[in-house]
Fold these 2 entries.
Entry 1:
Amino acid sequence: MDASSSSSQSLTFYDFLDRMRNPASLDLVRSIKSFIVSFSFSTANPENDGKRLQDFLLTMEASIRDHPLWDGASEEEIDSAIEGLEKYVMTKLFARTFASSHEDAKIDQEISEKIHLLQHFLKPEHLDIPEVFHNEASWLLAEKELQKINAFKAPREKLLCILSCCRVINNLLLNASMSENRVPGADDFLPVLIFVTIKANPPQLHSNLKFIQLFRRQEKLVSEAAYYFTNLVSAKTFICDLDAKSLSIDETEFEENMKRAKLAITGARMGPPRALHETAALVNPLARMCDKATQNELSPILDEIVGLASQSDPGPSQGMEGSETNISGGLPYPFMEAEAGELTIEDVEKLLGIYKDVVKKSSNGRMKNDYKFMTLGGCCYPFTETEAGELSQLTIEDVV
Amino acid sequence: MGCSSSVPSKSSGLPGGLNSDNGGMVDAKNLRVKLVLLGDSGVGKSCIVLRFVRGQFDPTSKVTVGASFLSQTVALQDSTTVKFEIWDTAGQERYAALAPLYYRGAAVAVVVYDITSPESFTKAQYWVKELQKHGSPDIVMALVGNKADLQEKREVTVQDGIDYAEKNGMFFIETSAKTADNVNQLFEEIAKRLPRPSPS
C-alpha cells in the first residue's frame, strides 16, 4: 500500500505551494481561484460536484504538463503537483462538499447509532472469526487508524487512514497464519474488518466514504487502494443491513440484546451524571449539537490548524507525532485527535491559545508565504485578536 | 435503513477512459486487468492465488502480497504483459449480497469450487448466474475445480465441470493449489483470452 511515500508527500505539498507562489504560475493560480469561487457559489449536488472536481483536476493536469514551470518534470513531479492541487482545492471546498446534505448527516447518525447498539454485545464469534485472529492489541491499532479519518480533509489522506487500518489487519492475518500454516484471504479479512469497524465506530462513516469516492482522483482510486476502499464500503453496507440472520446468533437472543442495548443507552441518558461520560457522544445534548455543527459548517480555525500543523500524512502513527514536534518544537497539539463533540467550554481557552500560537509561528517562519496562498480563497484567521476573556461571547460554532 | 446505495456507482458521472473500471488497460502491450475471485469459503481461492503469485520466478516483477489483494504480472509469448490485480471476496453465505461491490468493473471472474464438495459446485453455478445477470457483458469467466489432488474424495466429476462451463461459454480447468498443478496454466489461459485493444 502506498505508505512509503508518506513523508515525501508532505514535502511535496510545500513544493506545490512554493510553485504556486512563483509569479510564473499566476495563470494556474487564477484558474484554481476561479474554480473555487464558482464552485462555492453553485448549489451543492454531490454527484455533479464530484464530476466537476474530477474534470477540473484533469484539465489542470493538462495545463501543468504544458506549463513552463514543470518543463522537463518527471511523471512523479507532475503527479505530486496534482496531489497537492487535490489537497488544496478540497481543503478549501471541504465545508461545501463534505456531508453537505441533510440526508447524508442523517445516514451517518443512523449508522453510528446502530453500531453503538451493536458494540454492547457483538463478539468475534458472532462473525465466526477464528480464535487465531483474536488479537485485541492489533484490533485496537486498526481501530485507531480508522478513527483518525476526520483529522484530515484531503480525500487522499482520508483514504490513507482506511489503508492503514487495512494494513494493520493484513499484518495480523499474515502473522497469525504463519504459525498455523494456513493462507489468509478475504474469507478472513472481511469479518475482521467488519468487527474492527464496529469497535471503532468511525465518525461520519457514510459521508467519509462518499467523499473519498467522489473527490479522490479517479486514477488513484484503483488497484489496491480501490480494493481496500471497497472492503470498507462493503463493511458499511453489511452493518447497515445487519440483522440476526447476518450473524451466528439466535434470533431471539439478537433481539433481546438489541433491546437491552437500547435500554442501556436511554437509561444512561436519563440516569445520573456519572453515567453520562460513558455514552457522551450519543447522549450529551451539547455533543449532539456540536456534531451537527461539524457536519454543516467546518471551521476555518481547526481547518487552518490542521492544515498547518499536520502537513504530513496519516497512517503510521509515528508520522503524526513526528509532524507535531516538527512544527511546534515539542509543544503538543492536544486537540489533533479531538472531535468537535468532545470539546467543552473550558477547552476554548486552551484551543484559542494554541490557535494563536500556530498562527504566530506560521506568520514568522517559512509558512508565512503558504499562509498567503492559503488565504487566496478568502479565508483568514478571524480570532487572532480575540482575548480569552471575550470567550463568553464566542458561540460554540466558533469553536467548532 | 436505506444506506446500502449511499455510495454512488463508480461509473456514474465520472470521466471515463483514464484507467477506467473496465479492465483498466494501460496500453496495447501492457494490460492491467482486474480479476475477481468468487467461490464458497474454504474452496482454496486464496491458496490458488498465492501459488500463482509465489510461483512466478521473475525476480524483477514487483509482487504485492496482502491477505486478500494480490497482483502479479505475467509475460506472454507475444512480448505483451498482463498485470493481474486479484480481488479476493469473502465466500461465506452472509457476505453474498456484497459481491457486486467487488465484481463491478472486473474484466475477469474466476469462479472456484472444490471437487470434493458438491455444495461448492452448486454455489459456483450461483455465482456464474449472478455474473451473467450483473457483471460486465464482456467479462471473461473461468470455472475452476480446485483440490484436484484429492482424487479419492472426488464428488464432482470432470465431465460435470466441462459440461457446465461449455454451456455457459466459460473456460474450465481443474487445479491443485497444493501441488501447484495447472495453476500457472489457469492464469496464462485467461491472459490469452483477454480482449486486446486493436493496434493502431
Entry 2:
Amino acid sequence: MKHLPKHLQPRWRYLAVAVESPPDAAFDREAFQRACWYAAGNLLGDPGSADADLSVLRFRHPDGSSGGEGGDGADVRTGSAGAEATAIVRVRRDEVTRGRAALACVTRVDGTPVRTRVRGVSGTVRACEEKYLNPPRGVVEERTVAFAGADRPASARGRRVDIELADGCAGATELDYPGPD
Amino acid sequence: MPGGAEMPAMSDQSGNDEDPGPYAAVHARPEGDATVARLALTAVEMGYEGLVVRNHGDADAEPLPAGNDGTDAEDGPSSREDPADGAYVPERVADAYDVDVVPAVEIRTDDRGQAAGLLSRYREERALVCVHGGPLNRWAVEDPRVDVLAHPMRGAGDVNHVVVKAAAHNGVRLEFDLSRVLARTGGERVQALRDLRKLREIVSYYDAPFVVSVDTDSYLGLRAPRALRAVGEVVGLPPGDVSAGLAEWGRLARRNRTRLGEDFIAPGVQSGRYEKVD
C-alpha cells in the first residue's frame, strides 16, 4: 500500500522506559508488550488504549546482545529481563500523559513484579536511545555479602544489591552490609 | 507538643520557606522487601526529595542515632543493629543519597487505649506519626497529635462528613493511597477508584488537608511523581493536588522537626535570638 502523505502520518513520541525486576526474572519483549496492552486496556479502556497505541519497539537487557547500536540498524527485539532492562515504547504524540499513566500501572509482567520508570521522551527512536538509554547500566555482578546474620549470595548492579534470602529477595545497597575488606 | 492543629497565621520558624519537593512514604524491611537505603536510592532516582519510613509499629524499622553508624569501623554498619531487621541511620542514608529521610511510624491496632499509649510514646520519638486507617478512623482524626490518617478507605474503613470535618479541624492529613489504583485490576480497582472519588469529594468540600502516596512495601512498587500525576489525571485527581499531596509529607516533617527541636515552646514562640520583624 502506498505511504500516507506526510501530513496524514501519525505523530509519535518515544518513551525511554527502565524496567526493574528481581534478578531472577525472565520475560521477553512479547511479555512486556502484553503487560503494557493489558495495563492500558484496564486503565484507559478499549478506546483509550487504541488512542495511546502503546507498542514496545526495543527491549534490551543490560548484558543482552549489544547489537542494534546505530538506531535503524539491527533491531534488538529480543532479550530477557531481570535486574534492569530498558525498552522504547511508542505512543501517539497527544497521548504521552496517558501512556505514562498506563506504564505506571504495569506492576507485573508474567507474574514477576516490576518497577517501570519513564526516563525521557523523544521524537525519534535514535534520539531516545542516545539521550536516555546510553550508556547502559553496569552489568550484574555476583557476590557474597553478610546480611541478616549470615553470608548470602547476592547480585550487585552499581550501588544496588539484591540479596537472596530463604523467603525471596531483599533489596539493599552497599550501605547495608560491611565492606569486603 | 509536636503534631497538633495547624496555626494558620504562624509562619514556619525554620527560616526555610521554599516548598519541599515530593516525598515517598514507604514500608521498609522487615515489613517490606527492601532496606531503607535501597528505598532511598530508588526514590532519588525517581525524582523524590524525601523518604518517609512508615513501618507499622509491630514491624518497626528502628532509626538509630547518628553516632551509632559505625562507618569506617571494623565491624561495618553497626554490628548490633542489623539493616536486615530494619535498623537504619537516617543521617547516613540522607548523606549518601542526598535525600531527606524522615523516621515515621504507622500505628496499627484495633484498641483505642493501646493506640493512645503508642501515640504518646512515638510522638516524642518520630518526626511523623500516622495511624493505620480502618476501625480507628474516627479516633485518629479527633487527636491533633496524629499527623496522617493512612488509607482511611481501605478494607472496612470508611469516611463521612463527621470524620473529614474533624480532620480539617485538628489538622490530621487524610491519605489518598494510590497503590490499589496502580496494582489492582477489575472489580478491586473499581472499588479503589470509587473510594478515592468519595474521599476526594468530601475532602475538597471541607477543604481538609491531605497527603498522596503509593503506600508500598517494595522497591518495585514506587512510581515517579510525574507518573502519579499522569495517573491522577486519568482517574480524576487533579495533577496539582497530587503534587501538593506528595509535598505535604515534607511540609509536615519540617514542621514537626521544628516542634521537636529544643527551641520550640509553642507555635510562634521559641527560645533563642530575637526574630526580625518584617
